[in-house]
Amino acid sequence: MSYPGYPPAGYPPFPGYPPTGQESSFPPPGQYPYPSGFPPMGGGAYPPAPTSGYPGPGGYPAPGSYPGAPQPGGAPAYPGVPPGPGFGAPPGGASFPGYPQPPAQAYGGPAQVPLPGGFPGGQMPAQYPGGQAPYPSQPAMMTQGTQGTIRPAANFDAMRDAEILRKAMKGFGTDEQAIVDVVSSRSNDQRQKIKAAFKTMYGKDLIKDLKSELSGNMEELILALFMPLTYYDAWSLRNAMKGAGTQERVLIEILCSRTNQEIREIVRCYQSEFGRDLEKDIRSDTSGHFERLLVSMCQGNRDENQTVNHQLAQEDAQRLYQAGEGKLGTDESCFNMVLATRSFPQLKATMEAYHRMANRDLLSSIGREFSGNVENGLKAILQCALNRSAFFAERLYCSMKGAGTDDSTLVRIVVTRSEIDLVQIKQAFNQMYQKTLSTMIAGDTSGDYRKLLLAIVGQ
User: What's the confidence (pLDDT) of residue 402?
Assistant: First the structure.
């Protein structure tokens, strides 16, 4: 069974298309304060001042308060969607070609449904995160929502941790295992406090000491873990555009997947820490319709209303069809306008309406109408609208498949999602590729670098 034209040729598999229901929205991000005084690109010490306000489990909405949360008494989480497990019919009684019927087994059981070609093994568990059933209707998801693998350590003592790190680096040799044990089990906020305590206690900069003891991928991973999250995103964008050439996939990954608030904080951090305007750097490093898409993204003005307007979805689907498949040539500005302004739940509804109207999915239509970086950017937006965790799972898989490893991408995603939704990313990875994320990391990395990655990811 397959959906016409999906997945596009040469593009990794992606679950959950066509989508139905409404994906549980990601909790609004907390403030990501970033200390001033970070060194310019190329090295130098990181600031000693502690920061606070990073989002942790306590910053997520209360159970039952987010869209689609399990409701008391077994009430449906979404209008028209039964509370129990299973796929249900498409909204409005629509019929998609090959739309899966309700499986006999509950989540985690042996029942499987045929999926579009291209999935490893040709099969995937019948109920996977972000598929035809929304997250909360799956029992395994009910108690956790979006969840990171790293949580703030209980009974945290910054001075004690600073002492452990000092002993690990003192004298001949380095106790890498002690460093792994501390760093992998502390939240980003706690790492900032360890950094400040280290300088207070020893009059030395922790980051400089770590850099002198470590090298290669292990050094990159440790330094990323000690960067405040917003600064790390801003640093990654700057690093992607400095010097000769541009790492367009980094720009797409960050700017097309972050929330409005995260993007606005990144823009401010980019200006304050590097003395540069992010939009101007994007304009000087990119061009054409890809440039326009990224400039739209860095405004941080996407509608984030979780209510879906089905009439607008139908109108947008018709608008996109007439701008692409329904005419000779492509009206790129129409695609930019719809994909840059509509909320993710609204885009999911538009994709459903487009499939009903055109009998083909919007992702494959974009593959026929666009190419190169702008195609990748538009697809990234739609994939985040369908299932953000699966979007990152795909990125991780691509960073490790084949010969060699894209370690920067591997490090960046593991670090930035470790306190947000790495649990869901691991689940999506396992269901998309029939292997665990930790297994693939273990096979593609080595040494202390592998130990630290696996300690963050968990089993």
Answer: 85
